[in-house]
Write a structure and sequence with these properties.
Blueprint (H helix, E strand, L loop, with lengths): L14 H11 L5 H5 L6 H13 L8 H9 L4 E2 L6 E3 L6 E2 L1 H18 L3 E5 L22 E5 L4 H16 L3 E6 L4 E6 L1 H10 L16 E4 L2 E5 L6 H8 L3 H8 L11 E4 L3
Parallel strand pairs: 2-4
Antiparallel strand pairs: 1-3, 4-5, 5-7, 6-7, 8-9, 9-10
């Protein structure tokens, strides 16, 4: 795991709005909440990079790779709905957990401020990154989303407060960017899945997350939550398949696993 990241204090202009949001979310206000920031830093970029590495995500290089990952189900398409829309998004694909994050966030966002959330970027292959993009950017992995900053201060406040709370839960890393004005948000799929499971929310695989080391079946798909001591070899042997099949099903290349990681298990 990456080291804990220190942050400068970020003070909201209307603390009452934060306290109201905390109450609605069932959370309690504490020093850690107000010590989060959306200022961005190299530490923040490194944490995102570490997250991509821990998930063993591939950095897609070309447009054809993005389309191939979408065809194989590692990325899913976003089309927008009554709560959010896509604006000039070249590659409307993301990890399934990112799509779920956007759908849940946009539903709450529209209810809170009366306008749709605007998504301006999702998966971007390395060959299509803008000139000012950091080499640590995780857009090529499909775990990041850019959200347009609203012209309405009440909407900006609500969104920033919510992102700060989710940062505190270690499920996202968010930065307020200036040129153009937007919020860059990286979603950590494993942490987000666990966060939703604790709330009893169904995960992208169509199931409630199971306890560590248990198999859960959703429709014709099977998933497995990695426990301590697990390896690809032991998991493959337990399910009567090969290590290569597990790697192919999850779009991973290495054999390194992390406790809590959720794997798709091919069925025969």
């Amino acid at each position: 795991m990456p080291p804990m990241i220190s942050r400068r204090v970020f003070r909201l202009s209307r603390p009452a709005a934060v306290l109201c949001l905390l109450a609605l979310s069932g959370l309690t206000a504490g020093p850690a909440v107000l010590s989060q920031s959306l200022l961005g830093s190299r530490d923040s970029m490194l944490r995102q990079s570490y997250g991509a590495r821990d998930h063993d995500f591939t950095y897609l290089k070309t447009s054809s790779q993005v389309r191939e990952f979408a065809r194989r189900g590692f990325l899913v398409r976003l089309s927008g709905n009554s709560d959010y829309r896509l604006a000039s998004v070249s590659f409307p694909y993301a990890r399934p957990e990112v799509k779920l994050f956007i759908e849940r966030l946009s539903d709450q966002y529209r209810a809170a401020c009366g306008e749709r959330l605007v998504v301006t970027s999702l998966t971007r292959p390395t060959t299509r990154q803008p000139p000012n993009a950091s080499h640590l950017s995780v857009h090529p992995t499909g775990m990041a989303v850019d959200l347009r900053r609203s012209d309405r201060s009440s909407c900006r406040e609500w969104l920033e407060s919510t992102l700060l709370l989710l940062e505190e839960k270690d499920v996202v890393e968010a930065t307020r960017e200036r040129h153009p004005p937007h919020y860059h948000v990286t979603v950590f799929p494993a942490s987000y899945t666990q966060y939703l499971a604790a709330k009893g929310v169904r995960t992208p695989s169509g199931k409630k997350t199971s306890r560590k080391g248990e198999v859960a079946v959703a429709s014709s798909k099977k998933t497995y939550r990695v426990g301590r001591g697990d390896s690809l070899w032991t998991i493959a042997k337990r399910h009567g398949i090969s290590v290569t099949e597990i790697k192919r099903a999850n779009g991973i290349s290495s054999s390194r696993l992390k406790p809590g990681q959720v794997l798709s298990i091919p069925t025969r």
